[in-house]
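With this grant's support, we have settled on a layout for protein records. One resulting record is reproduced below.
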Amino acid sequence: MRTRLIAATLALATALAPLSCTPTQEGALLGAGTGAAAGALIDHHHRGRGAAIGAVAGGIIGGLVGYSYEFSKFCPACGRRFHYTKVYCPYDGYALQPIQ
């Protein structure tokens, strides 16, 4: 029964992730779902506590990973990195290029 609940939680987090607004939110949602599932499986005696700790840790780590993807453009002139929504460098006006 609990295994099904854990699987359903992870599936729900995965299904809702594309509805997130930013890579940070998507990473946090996927991280929290994965962390909750892993925490519940690891802590056999206190699944609720394990799921809560896993969700918090996974959400933080997933959010940080997602945040790093938001800075996916750079200025060819000065080399600074920028948020994926920026088009031009505010320092020298060059068109930003995607980081590869």
